[in-house]
Design brief:
- Helices cover 54% and strands 10% of the residues.
- The chain is built from ten helices and five strands; from the N terminus they run H-E-H-E-H-H-H-H-E-H-E-H-H-E-H.
- Strands 2-3-1-4-5 form a five-stranded parallel sheet, with helices on both faces.
- 32% of the residues are buried.
């Protein structure tokens, strides 16, 4: 599996010439959900997994859909032997400055390079996608699985003030603090994604965008289910 993953990543990053990129006929199906900070990605993924599982059972297919988010970081951290504090830092997409890197270099605690961290995350996402019937939230999963035939890539968006209001309500922040939190987290997520996407526009990676400010969770889930059914993800 790992060798296939390395071949896939070499072609995805241009290290091996391939005009169209690799195409995988059998792995999947996989649905990726990227979201701007403050959009309800986990809530939608949970409901989507439940609905698709029910659809499968109605067709006498016992395979259940699952959704993963924090598991990506936890399993990657476990493989890299990261401490809980460093795992938390990684999960928040934080970038380290020169002096932080210098301090870590001279510390007694093992710390892998950023490249190794990102590639470990990518390997976990890739392996989960190959197993199929999985909804993956964030972590540039849309770029890592883009060339899987059995894939669907979603992005959740909403105006900044709508997202800030939700963040403020959940975390007990002022609107000003929530706007800053949303803006900074969006930037950190974009920086992480750009490692895999090379700053290409979103339209090259996502199949459909949803405005969470104007659509209910149920409407979004229903629309994704229709798309999933049309692509044969429910059989």
């Amino acid at each position: 599996m790992d060798n296939l993953f390395l071949k896939y990543m070499r072609e995805r990053t241009g290290r091996k010439k391939s005009p169209k990129g690799p195409t995988f006929e059998s792995p999947g199906p996989v649905i990726t959900i990227s979201r701007e900070y403050g959009c309800p990605g986990r809530r939608i993924a949970k409901k989507l997994a439940q609905t698709l599982t029910e659809k499968n059972k109605a067709q006498r297919n016992s395979r259940e859909w699952r959704w993963i988010s924090k598991e990506i970081i936890e399993d990657s951290a476990r493989e890299l032997k990261l401490s809980p504090s460093l795992m938390k830092e990684l999960s928040e997409y934080k970038e380290r400055g020169f002096f932080e890197n210098l301090a870590l270099f001279f510390s007694d605690e093992y710390y892998p390079s950023d490249v190794k961290i990102k590639n470990t995350i990518a390997k976990f996402i890739y392996n989960a996608a190959v197993e199929g019937n999985v909804i993956i939230i964030g972590r540039a999963a849309e770029a890592i699985t883009k060339n899987f035939v059995n894939s669907l890539h979603i992005k959740l968006k909403a105006p900044l003030d709508w997202r800030a209001k939700r963040v403020a309500d959940i975390q007990g922040m002022t609107m000003q603090e929530a706007r800053r939190e949303a803006f900074e987290m969006d930037q950190r997520r974009d920086a992480f994604r750009n490692y895999f996407e090379k700053e290409r526009p979103d339209i090259e990676y996502f199949d459909i965008f949803f405005n969470c400010a104007t659509l209910t969770d149920e409407e979004i889930v229903e629309s994704i289910v229709i798309l999933a059914e049309s692509r044969g993800f429910v059989v």
